[in-house]
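Practice record 12: protein with zinc ion.
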Amino acid sequence: MKTTESIERETVSREGKPTYILAIETSCDETSVAVVADGTDILSNVVSSQIETHQRFGGVVPEVASRQHVETITFIIEEALEKAKLQPADLSAIAVTQGPGLVGSLLVGLVAAKALACALELPLIGVHHIAGHIYANQLVHKLEYPFVSLVVSGGHTELVYVESEGRFRIIGQTRDDAAGEAYDKVARALKLPYPGGPHIDRLAHEAEEGVTLPRAWLEPDSYDFSFSGLKSAVLAVLNQANMKGQPLDPQAVAKGFQDSVIDVLVEKSARAVQAFGAKQLLLAGGVAANKGLRQRLEARCAEIGVPLLAPPLSLCTDNAAMIAAAAFLKWRRGQFSALDLKAEPLLKLEGWSV
Ligand code: KG4
Ligand code: ZN
């Protein structure tokens, strides 16, 4: 099997210069543009977050998100090129998140990417958002196949078995809320700002003891997840305490909730790694920024003797560098997209091969 390094050298010698991919990510509420050399070297990764805009609504408002992408995208493209110290003519390809995500938001990125690809006569590469989250790890680590990836974000909670480059098999997924969604809903019940994940993470670390909450293990052999029962249990505990006039410490609620989420994520991931003979466990998605989850996974992986790979915090949440990293795999195979590439809000990961 070719290693990343050997293929990179081939690419460099074939082209005589590094492969510069400009990638655009607008699937939700971050407008991001990155320039990455040879799939691993981040020259720029500009992320313009809309969090302040959506905070007052307690969640992302799709129409507002699309409009803000339209207003910022050209400035972010210019900034990404400036920071990379490159001219448009230096680029090798344009990559863009094709889905899944909010259709209006995806469309803004796609139109911008197509315009650039067309004007600069460059290949266009459509990328699956979750493949981007998984291959964010390639920006900082050397990947070894087969691996299992735990993808935990605002819209997804999946255990993905990756047998070889770009061959994804979903072995478990949430049956209701995504982990990040549960974090955001519980945070809202605790009157914490959106997005709630980082606030719950912080509060959980301040608590001595957590309230007791259930764990959704589901069937013994299942790799699926369920978080909506846990979210309801949190709401019930809060309501009961309020009715008795004994409000609970938000820290204790945050710790109880976080412990319950992490217990299930860690145990199912460890079981999948062992059952599938994975060489590595890759953590991916916005919830991968969670300190508690990283610590507990690190410890469990040490016990079973499998390395845990996780991107730095800035590459866990939505960003375009991860899209460029996944696009580079397609670039090496010459898998380019047609200029009529469509936004796919429900794009499936299985079958989307790189
Ligand atoms: O991957 P991402 O940036 O966007 C999606 O593709 O969904 O993930 C955003 C999610 C939000 O639900 C946010 O609350 C959660 O990631 N998140 C966290 C943390 N940082 C972000 N959840 C738990 N702990 C964190 N430290
Ligand atoms: Zn994401």
